[in-house]
Amino acid sequence: MKEIGAVFEEATALHDSKACGIDRPVLLKTLPGGVAVEPAATVRCETALQLARWMEGSVKPSLEAAMPGETITGLSQASAYVCKNRNGAEEGRISEHAFGNAIDIAGFALKSGKSLTVRPADKDATLEGAFQRAITEAACLYFTTVLDPGSDAAHQNHLHLDVKERRGGYRYCW
Description:
30% strand, 2 helices, single chain, nine-stranded mixed sheet, Muramoyl-pentapeptide Carboxypeptidase, domain 2, alpha+beta
């Protein structure tokens, strides 16, 4: 992470009574190029690394294509480590957030002062809509699970990105 220019702190191991936890968490503060992570995100190193790769390899170039001259200054994250079940359900499987494998992206702050908020964009013919669709599709190259506002009611205002390892390299991109 240091080699690529991310700013982070090593954090104390996290463990909870529900079998949640991260042995070696990091508190991710800034992505390469000075992109602030707001608020700072507690995740596993692999999650932070894939987030940085996605930003550099797909998000920044897609923004340049959609809005030439504009740059990203901040990434708004809605959820990183939290001990909970999937979709906040009372019962069921534990979320990948509970292991530091997931981060939810709510939007981006731009140099111009404008904000781009993640929202349903599947039928949005604007450049902002095209940008969101492009970065969502590209996220499947970096993350093993990508859920967007079209996937279900629990993800209407953010992108869920996680690095859960699955048998046979399977990816779930919805």
